């Protein structure tokens, strides 16, 4: 039948205005307040469920039109020869750039190339830096000569510096921020750094040379606004140092670039990347130069990585890459999904590389410039991020700039508050880490990694400048610590710590709450032992006693609890239960249930981490 149904070509909802959409939403809410659907970022910026299309906006210039981003592959094997083999393989199989991570660098995660000239020279064997390969250096205090080592190796091997695409990654402020210390004040360090920049520039390297690394803030649990303000302040600090060293502003601003973390929150990540370009353009205009597109390197976020169910890291990294790519990142480095477990093997490295290749070659994400332009939600977030970040940036500037603000603990104190709120939300399972704080698998097989011991550099005692460091975190670590403890008990005793699910009533009554309780306890490595549904408290008590367990959790419906929960709790206590939980919010029944022996209640929004930690105290 050759008939076109216009309902599928121009559906009714295409003509709805905001008021009509709101009416439909209110119908679904059934009297619940609309504000229930409004979220907030960790800087208090509202995220609404509905936005009108933005008008009179322009796309934000990032990469050249339809140009792909650089596919950066992390090179961090402690054996330089092995790193060379990995690099050659990566370049032969789709990588277009190499992120050279030296030991002790920001983001080294305990690995990295040895900090010496020989390792750099060995790494370059068989690689042609003047043949279109992008390089980015990640150095730290003990590898502060890395830029010079790389430049010397390139010249010794006869490559033309002018044809090399190298971002040298000099970031003394970032190194001090992570270490919480510096041998000298920033003003004292600056001449040595700008001298290196001048030497590289004189040799013909085109840079950029200095990076403002926003990962410092993101890794420590900071917000998008804090990451933007810090990055902007560090970039301006470097621009001032270059200007003071005699570089023309037109040249100096091209010697500085930014590196941002990209995480699995698509809209916030996209808005963050877009905001930084607008903020930097405002700085350029204030300096009297015409804005140019800023080079932004992206790396998928460390703090979202998990050791448990590490395969889920692939999904998180895919969303992070998707977000950074659409937001115009010039390069993207995907952390292999097993990095939290150890040094990734070839399989994990292949997946990291192919994540980008698929998004570029099959999904064609780079074909459209700034696809978020005009999208009401992302445009609004971009504008609000700019306003909030600019205000914090001004506060940092009033304190004397990035280094002075770090020395005064201004930046760290704000990040600490945000990080604590973020960790509390993870502990309450409000911010979900799939495979760790939700949907755990106690029987998972851990992914394989290469044999290499993590080595973390220690702060020198002779540092003149000391202040609180911005230490990196992984949000999953507290849950993983409980899972590790469970594994240790399993290895020692042949059985994990367990909780008895005391189900009341029929399957229809208890299944939902029993499933919730199982997931709740197993996120901490406490295995749930199921039972049939019981109506008789004595039968329930006998079943519990037969297991020989110490703790139990009552599971049923709100309909069953008023009539049966108290009697069941009494029976469990008489049968020797040391600690009794109830799945659900008790409401008006709390006093009665506590009097009957229920010590704690588990429900959505409960501090799961606190409950689970206390539970281990009952079990060990």
Topology:
Layout: H1 6-9, H2 18-29, E1 39-40, E2 46-47, E3 70-75, H3 80-92, E4 97-101, H4 117-123, E5 134-138, H5 146-156, E6 165-167, H6 172-179, E7 181-182, H7 186-202, E8 210-213, H8 215-219, H9 224-244, H10 249-252, E9 256-262, H11 266-286, E10 296-300, H12 312-326, E11 331-333, H13 346-362, H14 376-398, H15 402-407, H16 410-427, E12 465-466, H17 477-493, E13 498-503, H18 507-522, E14 527-529, H19 537-547, E15 551-555, H20 561-574, E16 579-583, H21 590-596, E17 600-602, H22 608-619
Parallel strand pairs: 3-4, 3-11, 4-5, 5-6, 8-9, 9-10, 10-11, 13-14, 13-15, 15-16, 16-17
Antiparallel strand pairs: 1-2, 7-12
Helix pairs in contact: 3-4, 9-11, 9-14, 11-12, 11-14, 12-13, 19-20, 20-21
Under CATH, the homologous superfamily of the domain at 214-437 and 461-473 reads: Methylmalonyl-CoA mutase
Q: Name the overall outline.
A: globular
Please mark out the parts with pLDDT under 50 across 5 or more consecutive residues, or reply none. 1-10
Q: What is the percentage of strand-forming residues?
A: 5-15%
CATH topology value of the domain at 214-437 and 461-473: TIM Barrel
Q: Would you identify the CATH architecture of the domain at 214-437 and 461-473? A: Alpha-Beta Barrel
The main sheet comes to: 8 strands, parallel
Task: Provide the spatial order of strands within the biggest beta sheet.
Answer: 6-5-4-3-11-10-9-8
Mean pLDDT: 93
Cα separation of the termini: 72 Å
Q: Look at the helices and sheets and give the structural class.
A: alpha/beta
Helix proportion? 40-55%
Determine the number of helices (DSSP H or I, runs of at least 4 residues).
22
Number of strands: 17
């Amino acid at each position: 039948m050759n008939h076109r149904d216009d309902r599928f070509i121009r559906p009714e909802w295409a003509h709805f205005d905001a008021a009509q959409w709101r009416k439909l939403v209110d119908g679904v809410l059934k009297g619940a307040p609309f504000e229930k659907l409004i979220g907030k970022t960790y800087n208090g910026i509202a995220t609404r469920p509905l936005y009108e299309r933005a008008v009179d906006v322009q796309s934000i210039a990032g990469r050249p039109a339809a140009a792909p981003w650089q596919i950066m592959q992390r090179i961090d094997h402690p054996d330089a020869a092995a790193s060379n083999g990995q690099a050659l393989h990566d370049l032969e199989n789709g990588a277009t750039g190499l992120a050279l991570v030296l030991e002790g660098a920001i983001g080294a995660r305990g690995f990295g190339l040895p900090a010496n000239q020989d390792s750099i020279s060995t790494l370059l064997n068989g690689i042609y830096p003047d043949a279109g390969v992008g390089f980015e250096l990640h150095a730290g205090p003990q590898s502060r000569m890395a830029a010079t080592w790389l430049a010397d190796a390139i010249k010794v091997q006869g490559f033309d510096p002018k044809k090399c695409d190298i971002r040298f990654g000099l970031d003394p402020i970032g190194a001090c921020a992570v270490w919480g210390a510096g041998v000298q004040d920033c003003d004292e360090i600056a001449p040595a750094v700008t001298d290196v920049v001048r030497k590289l520039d004189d040799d013909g390297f085109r840079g950029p040379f200095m990076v403002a690394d926003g990962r410092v803030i993101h890794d420590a649990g900071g917000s998008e606004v804090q990451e933007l303000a810090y990055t902007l302040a560090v970039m301006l600090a470097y621009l001032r140092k270059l200007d003071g060293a005699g570089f023309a502003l037109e040249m100096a601003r091209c010697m500085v670039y930014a590196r941002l973390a990209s995480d699995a929150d698509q809209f916030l990540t996209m808005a963050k990347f877009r905001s930084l370009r607008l903020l930097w353009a405002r700085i350029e205009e204030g300096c009297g130069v015409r804005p140019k597109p800023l080079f932004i390197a992206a790396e998928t976020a460390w703090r979202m990585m998990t050791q448990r169910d590490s395969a889920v890291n692939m999904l998180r990294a895919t969303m992070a890459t998707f977000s950074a790519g659409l937001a115009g990142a010039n390069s993207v480095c995907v952390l292999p999904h097993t990095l939290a477990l150890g040094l990734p093997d070839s399989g994990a490295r292949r997946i990291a590389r192919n994540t980008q290749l698929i998004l570029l070659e099959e999904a064609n994400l780079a074909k459209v410039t700034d696809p978020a332009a005009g999208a009401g939600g992302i445009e609004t977030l971009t504008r609000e991020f700019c306003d909030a970040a600019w205000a914090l940036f001004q506060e940092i500037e009033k304190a004397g700039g990035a280094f002075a603000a770090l020395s005064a603990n201004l930046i760290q104190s704000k990040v600490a508050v945000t990080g604590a709120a973020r960790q509390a939300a993870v502990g309450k399972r409000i911010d979900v880490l799939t495979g760790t704080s939700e949907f755990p698998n106690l029987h998972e097989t851990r992914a394989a990694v290469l044999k290499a011991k993590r080595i973390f550099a220690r702060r020198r005692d002779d540092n003149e400048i000391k202040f609180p460091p911005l230490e990196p975190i992984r949000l999953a670590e507290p849950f993983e610590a409980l899972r590790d403890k469970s594994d240790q008990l399993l290895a020692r005793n042949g059985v994990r710590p367990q909780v008895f699910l005391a189900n009341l009533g029929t399957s229809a009554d208890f299944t939902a709450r029993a499933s919730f309780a199982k997931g709740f306890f197993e996120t901490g490595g406490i295995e749930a032992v199921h039972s049939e549904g019981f109506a008789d408290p004595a039968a329930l008590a006998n079943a519990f006693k037969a297991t020989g367990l110490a703790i139990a959790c009552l599971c049923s419906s709100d309909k069953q609890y008023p009539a049966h929960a108290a009697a069941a709790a009494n029976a469990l206590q008489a049968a020797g239960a040391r600690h009794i939980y109830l799945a659900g919010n008790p409401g008006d029944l709390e006093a009665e249930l506590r009097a009957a022996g229920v010590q704690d209640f588990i429900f959505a929004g409960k501090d799961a981490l606190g409950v689970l930690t206390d539970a281990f105290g009952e079990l060990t």
